[in-house]
Amino acid sequence: MTTALAALLAALVLLPLLGHKLLAEWDEGIYAEVSREMLSGSWLAPHWNGQVWLEKPPLMLWITAIFFKLFGVSEFWARAGSAFSGIGLVALLHGWLARTRDLLTAWLSTIILLATLGFLHVCHVGEMDVLLSLGACIALIGLSGVESGRRGGWYLFWIGFAIAVMTKGAAAVSIPITAVLVAIVQRWKLREFGVAFAGGLLIFLALVLPWHLVMYRRFGSEFVAQYLGLHVFARATQQIEGHRTQWWYYGVVLLASAPPFVLLYPVAVYRGVRRSQLQCWAIFAVVTICFFTLIQTRLPHYIAPAYPALAVLTAVYVADWLRNHGFNPFGTVGVAWGFGPTNRPMKGKGALALGLATAAFWALSILATHSTLKSLHSADLAGPGLLDNKEADTLLRQAGVEQAPTGGPLLLLRERPVQSIATIVFYARRPVEQVQLVPISSARPIDRYMFDPKPLNDLVGSEPRLILLDKSLVAQLPYNFLFAPVLSSTTEELGSIVRMTK
Fold first, then answer.
1. What residues pair up with 451 in beta bridges, in sequence order?
2. What is the pLDDT of residue 55?
3. For the segment 260-290, what is each residue's pLDDT rounded down to a tens digit?
4. Among 8, 5, 179, which residue's Cα sits nearest to residue 98?
5. What's the pLDDT tens digit per position in 446-495?
């Protein structure tokens, strides 16, 4: 019952306003479009803008595509996979802590996690980090069982690891690193492995290998280049896509994304390392932050899987402190791991004062870090003014471009050609082809998300084509092209274009 209440609370926090704003540039827009194209194309080999897209495994893409199939394509359902994964994660940790420890710790983990701004952010965007985190927590619960002598926990470990790998590939590497470090620290013998370990490994291979083998057989080196090249090795060895950060970047991320709980993280992790029942959670949190610190391309959501682990550790620490000071509204039933009843009862007024002071401190810390958090999650990461497509996206959504009578891709003509088209492809509901009026410079590198244009003359003939262009460029169209506007905004114009034959 209490787990259901925690899930309901999470739903009340995470689901409202989930679809109230346009999709963000880059990942959110790209993943939504890949999922949308599955509805009319291949569910096995993902595509984006009509081209094969092999940058990530398909689990979250499949989930989003199923939502689109059942409920229609919208911003809400593009983000629903993340939100529902967050609800499941909150319920999972709450239920596990209620069963293995007590209700006080369980509710504290729920409150801390739902009050952690970094966790709330990743649950409200249509990306893959929350499902990755859910897989990691399933694996850690299994590993905790192994730490306690229940070797059947290996099945959960391998299933959680499989979910994480099929969600975000190499980003799941913190899970096996944690398992290896736990085995070393606790000096596990071979008997800690055995049949359950082997059986879980077989399940993992059955869940992970088929898709990877099919993609490699079908696409070969192209699959390796997209799946491991740019998005693993390049990100690990150099700062790409304009993300310029220092090694201490995630310290700033934690200060802005987890106030005021970040002040308790060091002691909570320290205490976790010293307890065998919590060691895997503490090691996982440290490994995740350190691993992504070593990677040269750093983004705030990369350390999202650490938030649930840190919430568990912090909840245990705070619950111990409260219990030792006489506050445990749920009694001592279910207290595990050797903790006895309290001996110094906290008066009702004292408990209320502590709660109000904590809430006030939380609110003030959020106000103090708001501007930093906003800048961390800004779409302007690759340079000022490059990535704002909100006006064009709104225009396309209003126009219902997928219903337009003109066939073929939407032509996109921009005064500044190097511009993200990630969300434009989603809102166009059809392929998008960048075009230019002037000869294309061969010096500029081709990037299918930013710069891959063709000459306008090559794509427009006697049949009308749909085009979205900057208003400033309408007057610059060649004299033999006829443009008929359909809908306009402050700086954008949507209409049809045709080449006159006489």
1. 447
2. 93
3. 999 999 999 999 999 888 999 999 999 999 9
4. 5
5. 788 888 889 998 899 888 999 999 999 999 999 999 999 999 999 999 99
Give CA 196 to chain center in angstroms: 31
Compute the C-alpha angle 61/63/65, nearest 5°: 65
Closest CA to 96 of 63, 123, 125, 134: 134
Cβ 301 vs Cβ 82: under 8 Å: no
Tokens of 46: 């993902």
Contact 17, 93 (CB under 8 A): no
Take residue 197 and report the two structure tokens written for it.
Answer: 């370990």
Structure tokens at 69: 């199939």
Q: Quick: pLDDT tens for 110-145.
A: 999 999 999 999 999 999 999 999 999 999 999 999
Numbers of helices and strands, H then E, in the chain: 20, 8
The residue written with tokens 């705030």 in the block is 300
DSSP 8-state class, residue 22? P
What's the burial of 146, exposed, middle or buried (CB within 10 Å: 0-12/13-18/19+)?
buried
First vs last C-alpha separation in the chain:
76
Domain boundaries, the chain: 28-375, 390-499
For residue 345, give the DSSP letter.
P
Give CA–CA dist 459/273, Å, rounded.
Answer: 62
CA–CA separation, 114 and 311 (whole Å):
9
Answer whether 0.85 is exceeded by the pTM: yes
Q: Is the peptide bond before 405 cis (omega within 30 degrees of 0)?
A: no
What residue has token string 């008997």?
A: 191
Grouping H, G, I as helix, E, B as strand and the rest as coil, residue 486 is strand
Q: Which amino acid is at 48?
A: W
Place of tokens 């994964």: 85
Longest dimension (CA), the chain: 96
Element (H, E) at 487: strand 481-488
Q: Is the dihedral of CA 111, 112, 115, 117 positive or negative?
A: negative
pLDDT tens sequence across 379-429: 554 444 455 789 999 999 998 887 777 778 999 999 887 788 999 999 999
Cα 212 → chain centroid: 21
d(CA 189, CA 149): 12
Q: Please tell me whether the peptide bond between 260 and the residue prior to it is cis, using omega within 30 degrees of 0.
A: yes
Contact yes or no for 312/113 (Cβ under 8 A): no
Q: Which amino acid is at 104?
A: L
Tell how strand 454-455 and strand 432-436 pair up. parallel
What the block records as the tokens of 316 is 């245990």
Which residue type, as a one-letter code, is found at position 169? G
